[in-house]
Amino acid sequence: MSRYVAVIDDEARSSVRILRAVSLTIILFVAVYAPALALSASLHLQIAATVPFVMFLTLVTAGIAIRLLASRTPGGLVRYGFSLPALKHVGAAVIVGAPVAIFVALLLARVHEAGPLAGLSLAPWLAVPYFVVGAPIQEEVIFRGLLQTTLAIGAAPPTGPSRKYEVAASLLVALLFGCIHLVVGRYTAAAAFLLGAIAGEFRRRSGSLIPAVICHAFFNLAGIIVP
């Protein structure tokens, strides 16, 4: 009987721990994006100005949150993906990311969704820095750096990191990443989920954000160059 009660107690603690981790992850997501979006709306910025403004402000906010959380986490900033990966992970990001990105871009071109750049007219010399460099860094720091790490750490059992929870955190954050792209269309959201799942796995395996950024950059570049 006592063993049965202990099992039930462990399951209850696990459920509470996971719920707290998910709640904190959602709170961080809102805390990063809500102020930037509200401020850009209050300033009545044009879309060409809104994009870099939101990118910069959310990146700064996420960076502050990561710095505060890392100061209380064993491993510090390295735990949040701020480290150099092994070359094999960089190579894998290129080998996997480039063909998958082109394939996905070709499929999206057939469904004729507006795309995330709808209504935004940028010269190529601006589109590449914004969406092939800036956006991959900004979104990977937020989603794979801040949110995925926070969820994986918070949901992990007291005994230490668990592959099961790390994979689950990666997929849940990828799902969130996909959901925010539903405003563009369901196919774009599905592509964003796929990108998030691949980038999250690279982040998990390498311990670094760099392979995830590389993969993300290929997806964005393919979306720009594929008609």
Describe this structure in words.
It is built from seven helices and no strands. With 227 residues, the protein is mostly helical. The N and C termini lie far apart (66 Å). The mean pLDDT is 90.
List the helices and strands and how they pair.
Layout: H1 2-42, H2 47-70, H3 87-111, H4 124-155, H5 163-179, H6 186-206, H7 210-225
The SSE order reads: HHHHHHH
How many structural domains?
1
Structural class based on helices, strands and sheet pairing: mainly alpha
* Morphology: globular
- The count of β-strands is 0
Q: Report the portion of residues in β strands.
A: under 5%
Gap between N and C termini: 66 Å
Please estimate the helix content.
over 70%
Unreliable runs, pLDDT <50, ≥5 residues? none
* Backbone CA Rg: 19 Å
Oligomer: single chain
Largest sheet: none
Number of helical elements: 7
Taking all residues together, what is the mean pLDDT?
90
